[in-house]
Amino acid sequence: MASEVRADIDAISEAWTSLPSPGEVGVGLERFTGQRMERILATVGGIGSTALGAQALLGALSRIDLLDGPHVAVMVMVFGPLLWMIVACFSGRWISQACGSFAVLYAVALAIWPVVVDRGLNEAENQPWIFFLVNIGVVAALLAFSPRLQFVWAIGLPFVYGYVRLVQGGFEQSYWITTAFDVSFTLILGSVIVSLGWMFRQVAAGVDDARARAVETYAEAAAASAAEEERMAMSALMHDSVLAALISAERAESARERSLAVAMAREALTRLANTEAAIAQEGSDEPAARSRIVAELRRALSEQGADAVVEERGVPVAVPGRVARAMVLAARQAINNAVLHAKGRGLHVIVESPEEGQLTIAVSDTGPGFDLAAIGEDRLGIRASIVARMAAVAGTSNIVTDSTGTTVELGWRES
Predict the structure, then answer these.
(1) Which of 23, 67, 126, 372 gets the highest tally of CB atoms within 10 A of its CB?
(2) What is the Cα–Cα distance from 117 to 60, expressed in whole angstroms?
């Protein structure tokens, strides 16, 4: 029986330890929406970088007759990190490092463009191939840098491009119109890219924060519920075992009664000592036969010194172990109440299973009865040890009492 009582306490302890501590719910919690958003941004960036990178590469190779050593070095400086960036965006690995490398090296290549490239390669009416990658540099900053640096790249790169184009063209009037158009276009597009990225990230962060608060609230409510259930289970244990043993010891007069009181006290101490035992010691949840339940109830009657019988009715059945434990413990409490308050007069126990998957236990006596409504909130003999215990296993409990006696009926039906 000690293992049966431990089952209630240990099951609650298992639930308690599985709950996150209030205040620590957000610690280490996966930012699922934020991570998904980062993956989406990286994939879109990879697609755009591939398309514009191919366009820039074709533009560079179309004037291969004008390529020289410094120009080829600039191409390697730009397209090498760009290829790494594209691979990183699609694979999801080393994204920050690859994008950061391209953003910095592209800015350097853009700054030295007038020095290494002849003016003859870039007429005023034709955009140089490096222009097609200005906003890819902004995308790289979006994926690698903080918001402040992202806006620096979105605003700075277009103006750097405009300045080097004017320097390369000797600030001739023919360069001003086309360069102004290019700078305004890339400036607006880069600002939109950074703004959308910032907005999407803020939305994702808001969703993650809302989920974390919801989990925090749930954890607090679940912890409070688990604490209350643990308190009720401990109170039931104290009432079922300790208090019953103390009352039996106080009222023991004969040698047999004193011997039974000692046995009850020893069992109560064992139950208390094992409330923190491992879950593996709580007993099996394998189906328990009705005959086993009857044997436990007869043992309970013997411990109480009650002259009563346990009657079996219906077909033999087996119920889940946790249900059997709950019904036996609730019936023991009903027997204790009958012996304590009705002096065991007319005590009778019926274990009935009308059909497969159904079991009822009825404990009746012919005592004076009592007023259910008058039972105080601090009295747990019925509220915790019977009603709550049966409710915990999806069972039912019904108590009928009047001046002619009391009947406690416990029921369980397989759902």
Answers:
(1) 67
(2) 12
The CATH number given to 285-413 is 3.30.565.10
For 119, residues 6+ apart whose C-beta sits below 8 A from its C-beta are 168, 169, 170
> How many Å apart are CA 121 and CA 83, to the nearest integer?
24
Q: Rounded to 5, what percent of the chain is helix, strand, coil?
A: 70, 10, 20
How would you list the strands of the sheet with 310-314, edge to edge?
310-314, 348-353, 358-365, 405-413, 396-402
Intra-chain end-to-end CA distance of the chain, in Å: 27
- Alpha carbons 393 and 361: distance in angstroms, whole number: 15
Q: How many CB atoms lie within 10 A of CB 388?
A: 20
Q: How far apart are CA 277 and CA 271, in angstroms?
A: 10
C-alpha to C-alpha distance for 283 and 21, rounded to whole angstroms: 28
Q: Which residue has the tokens 């700075």?
A: 156
- How far apart are alpha carbons 126 and 227 in whole angstroms? 75
- Pairing of the two strands 310-314 and 348-353: parallel
What is the residue extent of each domain of the chain? 32-213, 285-413
Q: Which of 135, 132, 103, 122 is nearest to 165 (CA)?
A: 122
The tokens describing 174, both together, are: 């023919």
CA–CA gap between residue 68 and residue 410 (Å, rounded): 95
Q: Pick from 56, 151, 153, 60: which is nearest to 100 by CA? A: 153
* CA–CA distance, 327 with 321 (Å, rounded to integer): 10
Mean per-residue pLDDT pooled into runs of 10, the chain (415 residues): 46 43 43 84 90 87 70 87 92 91 91 71 65 89 90 90 80 77 87 90 85 80 71 64 67 69 64 45 69 89 83 90 87 86 88 91 90 66 76 86 90 87
Query: What are the backbone angles phi and psi of residue 405, rounded to the nearest 5°?
Result: 150, -175
Record the pTM.
0.49
Contact (CB, 8 A) for 407 and 364: yes
pLDDT score recorded for residue 238: 63
Q: Is 99 helix (H, G, I), strand (E, B) or coil?
A: helix
Asked whether the beta carbons of 221 and 22 are under 8 A apart, the reply is no
